[in-house]
Hints:
Order of helices and strands: HHHHHHHHHHHHH
Number of domains: 2
Oligomer: single chain
Largest sheet: none
Structural class: mainly alpha
Number of strands: 0
Amino acid sequence: xxxxxxxxxxxxxxxxxxxxxxxxxxxxxxxxxxxxxxxxxxxxxxxxxxxxxxxxxxxxxxxxxxxxxxxxxxxxxxxxxxxxxxxxxxxxxxxxxxxxxxxxxxxxxxxxxxxxxxxxxxxxxxxxxxxxxxxxxxxxxxxxxxxxxxxxxxxxxxxxxxxxxxxxxxxxxxxxxxxxxxxxxxxxxxxxxxxxxxxxxxxxxxxxxxxxxxxxxxxxxxxxxxxxxxxxxxxx
Length: 236
C-alpha cells in the first residue's frame, strides 16, 4: 500500500522519523505501533476514515496498551513532558500516533489544566475526524473541565463558549460532546448544554463548498440519544 506521493508506506515512515526527532517515550510508542502494524488493517482504516491521515494498521487495543507501557517505562513524566509528548505524537499525521496522543492525555487527564485547552483546540482543528475529535472531547476535555476548581472552570467555560461559536464545525462538535460523561453520570450543566445546542441548530443553511456536513448537529443528536437512555427526565 503506497502513500499519495507514491512512496511505499514503510519508506515514508522512515522519512517521517528522520525529519522528526523523538523523545525516548515518543520513539518507544512509534516503534511499538509499527511493530503492531497490519497492511490489511491499514487499508480498512483508510477506507473507513479517509486518506487525510496515514495508517500503520495497529489496533485500538494495541494503541492503548502501548501508551500504558510507555507510561510504566517513564513514570517520571511531568505535566509538561506529557503535553509535549502529545504534541510530538500528533505532529505527524498518522492516525495511530494521533490516537496514542489522545490516549496519553486521557490517561494523564488529572495532570491537565484549563491552559491545556489551547493545545487541544489545535488538535481538534487539525484532526477533522470523528474517531479523534470525539474521544478528545468526551474522554479528555470533559474530565479535564470536571476536575478544575471554580476559577479554572469559569475560565474553561469561557473557552467552550468560544468554541461553540467558532466557524469550525469540528470545534463546535467538541464543545457539544465534552459534557457527555458528566451528564451521563447525573451531574453536568444540562441547561448550558441546551443553550449551546440551540446555538448550533439555526435555520437550515445553504450548502457551501466547505460545509461541515452538520457534524455539530450530529453531536447534539448523539448527546440527546444518550440522555434518552440514561436520564430520560431531561427535557430539551
